[in-house]
Design goal:
The protein is an alpha+beta fold and 891 residues long. It has five domains: 200 residues, no CATH class; 121 residues, no CATH class; 147 residues, HUPs (Rossmann fold, 3-Layer(aba) Sandwich), CATH 3.40.50.620; 128 residues, no CATH class; 137 residues, no CATH class. Strands 6-7-4-5-20 form a five-stranded antiparallel β-sheet. The protein is elongated and about 110 Å long. It starts with 24 loop residues before the first helix and ends with a helix.
Length: 891
């Protein structure tokens, strides 16, 4: 089960419901009734301190001396080196800068300015700096310098205390550090919490007040980088007896040489809770009534015990997310879910219907209801049962408030009892502490989503991010589409958007295998990468503010690109490698063609975004001369186009046949026509066949630009070498040759087998018509009856006649076969030349007995040994001559 969202710099402490053995409400109750009780009877749990956590390690500084340093586990060079006391300000404080021009305000960590070569000692309000922002050099003016960060104040105290002990007793400290494994290994660190309330105006660090200042060591952790990751994490080290003694000695030595008045150092054995005289009693907690509403009319009310016993209360997924009413996606275990469904006294209760987005989730099923209800019950039961546990424990070291119910909770560690090495925390009301008052319709701020989750790895940590505090004034237009291939119609659309926006971003779709854009005859694909190159070819002279977005993770449907870009990069489903910062823009334009369906559900997600405008661009038309060029093409190449259309009909029939399902085949009449086949196809397949049957120059749109037409023209040029250059120029300008080379590769297919194949097919059709007339009657299936030249048929036996009739019933397939590939197509008919062998023509020295016998069977074109048996003037020679004449004519 995924828990990455809850993984902090020193590891997340699991709630009891995080345990893998907890699947249902009954399982959760069992953990409290058995494992928790068993642990308390054998061990003393640790008190969970609510301070600031900064792992402390021993490093060697630039002077070659040992020094203690804080590490927030980011990938920043300063954290990897270790943040020593003299660089705490650099690491944790920020500068608020105003960019020039534009006036956009950004908040930048000081250590990032240092990495740009800026001396932070010289920083002052009003100073002009040259910085690198979003990979570009820009001028910025210092507006404000932050101060008073918790780590600067509290970290300096903690490091000062430890360094004082190191300087006062170097030998003893070296011995202690060696026992802890920290002397020569900077990846071993002290896990701790620092509480320094006297430095805060409020007197409180977080949600718990301790009324004193201290650093509490919890144990040892080791820093590591997970395989295949950049982020740095820590894992707990199970301390040996010698290490426990060494850690206690460290605490004694640090307190002995402590230069900070009123500040004390605590060991793990100073922050423990012991079992009191009162046994744990869960009965009061289990009797608490809870109501959870589905909507204004449907709700379920029962006590916690009954809820936990309900078989429908099952732990839901940590990963699955829903869109809440504020537009943010959250999981069932979001605390927004908990506080909305089970509010505290005086807070407003929300139903699941009120909590979730109506647009994103128009219907809520009973299954949805119980998933949200289960997560809320798991939280609430953990809270009220945990409260009963804390009531029975005694604060042994009197750290902070004596009553442990006012603390964050206690921590239990036992593989034998809980089955894992992870720390398990028992939390009472702290699970809701610090979350503020009632929840509004727009929910609480996301920062309180997981109060127990420490910031993620640096680079992503909030204190590391460049924060933009003002809204940009620019307008960006997003132009999504398939663009397979792009053409001048698309360019003109982009130019229209360029007049409305400061920049235009073009997003190209990357559809799956079932949605590829293929040429009608050659089958060549216009891929995502080809479309990128083609755009580059036709945009050379366009407006400079039009840009093609190149991504390694493009969307199959880029209409939603703006939604993806609105998310932080790590949360995007697509385009997570694209630099886009929504705060730079005041307005977003989604540019689409008027041909797009305004009711398309893909656009509905933008309906509630006030700064997004959907702009429909009128259909772009061809130049007025385009229709004239189409007319000239049809007139000049009529014979080739006619043969092409005959082939399209034949191939269309085969396509339709191949798409018919077994159920549809039962509905077909005897001897079905292509219309019959189409009638039993699904709507999608009907459109597929209909689109293919229109793959002829006669169906070109003489007005509006069409990528389908462009694919057809490119294939007509490459495969059939038709004179379509002027038509292509209207689509792509003067880049016709470059465009064709990108689509088909450097050498086109115009000299390929496609040209020869289709010419042979048209010649054969012509010849078959002549044979039909010369031979007399023609059967309904189109098979030739009689013999060429009107000669009398030979006498045949009944068996031979039956075999012949059986063959005659089969449809002629030769027109759908590539003659160049006949020998490679197993199971296909061999093309049979129609004619008689002349026994007078023999090859000298060759025994023709076998060949004479074989002549009763089908003859083959590619059998060169039989060539001498064809006399001059036979039909086979006529066919070859016609094919050769046509090849010469075509070229």
């Amino acid at each position: 089960m995924k828990r990455l969202l809850k993984e902090g710099p020193v590891g997340h402490m699991w709630h009891p419901f995080d345990l893998d053995q907890v699947k249902t409400g009954k399982d959760l109750l069992s953990i409290f009734q058995n494992e928790v009780v068993q642990y308390i009877s054998k061990f003393t749990p640790s008190i969970k301190i609510d301070g600031i956590n900064g792992p402390i390690r021993l490093i060697e500084n630039e002077a070659g001396e040992k020094e203690f340093a804080i590490d927030r586990l980011s990938t920043a060079p300063l954290d990897i080196r270790g943040v020593t006391i003299d660089r705490l300000r650099e690491r944790f404080e920020k500068a608020i800068l105003m960019l020039v021009p534009g006036g956009v305000e950004i908040k930048l960590p000081l250590h990032k300015l240092v990495a740009m070569g800026i001396d932070i000692q010289d920083l002052e309000v009003g100073k002009k700096l040259e910085i690198v922002h979003r990979k570009k050099k820009t001028i910025a003016i210092v507006k404000e310098l932050t101060s008073g960060h918790g780590f600067v104040n509290d970290g300096s105290v903690a490091l000062n205390v430890l360094n004082a002990a190191l300087h006062a007793a170097p030998g003893a400290m070296q011995s202690i550090m060696e026992d802890l494994g920290m002397w020569d290994n900077p990846n071993i660190c002290l896990n701790n919490d620092i509480v320094h309330e006297s430095s805060k105006d409020s007197g409180m660090v977080n949600a718990v007040s301790y009324q004193e200042d201290f650093i509490a060591f919890h144990g040892l952790n080791e820093i590591f980088v997970p395989d295949g990751k950049k982020a740095r994490k820590t894992k707990e080290i199970r301390m040996s007896t010698a290490q426990k003694v060494a850690l206690s000695d460290l605490v004694l030595l640090a307190n002995k040489h402590n230069p900070v008045e009123g500040f004390r150092v605590l060991s793990p054995f100073d922050t423990v809770a012991t079992s009191g005289d009162i046994p744990i009693d869960y009965s009061e907690a289990l009797s608490v009534d809870v109501t959870i509403e589905l909507d204004n009319e449907n709700a379920v009310s029962k006590n916690i015990g009954a809820w936990l016993s309900d078989p429908k209360i099952v732990k839901p997924s940590y990963d699955e997310k829903y869109t809440f009413s504020d537009g943010k996606k959250r999981s069932y275990f979001s605390k927004q879910n908990y506080v909305a469904l089970i509010p505290d006294g005086g807070e407003q209760r929300f139903s699941i219907r009120d909590m979730l987005s109506q647009e994103a989730h128009p219907e809520i099923t009973e299954d949805d209801y119980y998933k949200f209800a289960s997560a809320a019950i798991f939280y609430h039961a953990t809270r009220v049962l945990g409260r009963e546990v804390l009531k029975t424990l005694v604060n042994k070291s009197a750290v902070g408030n004596e009553a442990l119910t006012s603390h964050e909770g206690v921590v239990m560690r036992s593989r034998n009892i809980f089955g894992i090495d992870k720390p398990i925390k028992i939390t009472g009301d702290f699970i809701r502490s610090g979350m503020g008052g009632g929840i509004a319709q727009k929910m609480i701020k996301e920062e309180t989503e997981l109060d127990d989750a420490a910031p993620p790895e640096i680079g992503d940590e909030e204190s590391e991010k460049v924060e933009v505090s003002t809204q940009g004034a620019k307008v960006v237009a997003i132009m999504p589409g398939s663009f397979k291939p792009p053409h001048n119609g698309h360019v003109k659309m982009a130019e229209a958007l360029a007049k409305m926006a400061d920049e235009v971003l073009i997003f190209i779709s990357a559809p799956g295998a079932g949605s590829k854009r293929l040429m009608p005859f050659s089958g060549t694909e216009v891929s995502y990468q080809k479309s990128l190159r083609l755009w580059g070819s036709i945009l050379r002279n366009s407006s400079p503010n039009i840009r093609i977005v190149d991504s390694a993770n493009p969307s199959p449907s880029p209409v939603t690109a703006l939604l993806d870009l609105s998310l932080p990069r790590e949360e995007r489903n697509f385009y997570n490698d694209v630099d886009f910062f929504k705060e730079d823009y005041e307005k977003f334009i989604l540019g689409v063609s008027e041909k797009e369906d305004s009711e398309d559900s893909r656009f509905s997600a933008y309906a509630n975004m006030p700064n997004v405008e959907i702009v429909k661009i009128p259909v772009i038309n061809h130049d007025s001369s385009y229709a004239e060029h189409v007319g000239r093409l049809l007139s000049a190449s009529g014979d080739v186009i006619e043969a092409l259309e005959q082939k399209i009909q034949v191939d269309g029939l085969e396509l339709a046949k191949g798409l018919v399902s077994s159920r549809g085949a039962k509905k077909l009449p005897a001897n079905p026509s292509i219309e019959d086949y189409i009638s039993v196809l699904s709507k999608a397949n009907q459109n597929k066949v209909a689109k293919f049957l229109k793959s002829s120059p006669r169906h070109l749109d003489k007005e509006a630009f069409s990528a389908t037409d462009l694919r057809l023209l490119l294939d007509l040029k490459a495969v059939y070498n038709l004179p379509v250059e002027e038509l292509l120029k209207d689509f792509v300008g003067n880049n016709v040759d470059e465009f064709i080379n990108i689509v088909f590769g450097q050498s086109t297919v115009k000299e390929s087998k496609f040209v020869i194949k289709n010419m042979i097919l048209s010649t054969l059709l012509e010849q078959l018509d002549e044979m039909s007339v010369a031979g007399g009657s023609t059967g309904s299936s189109g098979n030739i009856q009689g013999t060429p030249g009107g000669s009398s048929p030979s006498k045949i036996t009944k068996k031979e006649k039956d075999e012949k009739d059986e063959k005659d019933e089969e449809p002629i397939e030769e027109v759908a076969i590539d003659p160049l590939d006949i020998s490679q197509h197993a199971g296909m008919k061999k093309l049979t030349p129609i004619g008689t062998a002349d026994s007078r023509s023999k090859s000298s020295g060759i025994d023709d007995t076998k060949y004479k016998k074989d002549l009763k069977n089908k003859l083959k074109f590619n059998n060169v040994d039989r060539a001498p048996y064809y006399k001059e003037g036979d039909i086979i020679t006529d066919l070859v001559e016609k094919v050769l004449r046509n090849i010469i004519r075509m070229n």
